[in-house]
Structure formats: C-alpha cells, structure tokens
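Researcher: We're teaching a course module on how sequence relates to structure. For the next exercise, students receive a sequence and then see the predicted structure as tokens, so they can try to spot secondary structure elements on their own. Here is the exercise chain.
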Amino acid sequence: MIRESNLVKAQERVSESFKLKFSELQKLSDAYNKEEDKIFTAALRVKAFPPIKGDITRAKIQWRGIKLNQSIRDGQAYRWLTQRGKIISPKVTVDMPNFNKIYK
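Model: And here is the predicted structure for the students to work with:
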C-alpha cells in the first residue's frame, strides 16, 4: 500500500518538473514571438503599399488589406503576411513536435 506522504512527495516532484518544463517552453515561445514580430514589422514598414509609418495600428493594417495567413502541413507551421493576395513577408516556419511519439 502506498503511504500518503510518499504520494504527496511524488506529486510535488511532478509539479516541480512540470513548472520547469513550462518555464522553458515559455522562454522559447517568447523568443520565437520576438523574432516573428521583427520580421513582420519590417515587412509592414518596407513591403506594404503604402508603407506603414508611425505606430502600427489595426486600422492601418485593415485599410491596406493586410492579412496574417497560416498553414500547418507535414509537421510544420507556416505564417506569412499578404496584402490583397500578394505575399509581402517571408514565410516563418516552426517545426511542430510529433505528439504521437512523445506520449507513447
């Protein structure tokens, strides 16, 4: 029979491990978002017609007909900006983990 104190210790270890993994994942996500933001901001300021000057606002993006497109294929996620059907930014690619392999 499992004692309650052992069960509590096991739960605490799992909780600590989860917190560490989550914080690492959060750091990776933040770094990725910063890089993506730099790429998309550069595209809005240089390749959009007319280029966005000053603050980038929702109204300026809508008026220019700019949309964020995304696609997930073959274990990769792609995101890019288009303006009225024309691609104005490079496609940002992220390798997605294969969860089937992780949880087996």
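Model: If you want an answer key for the exercise: Residues 16 and 26 are 15 Å apart (CA to CA). The longest helix spans residues 4-46.
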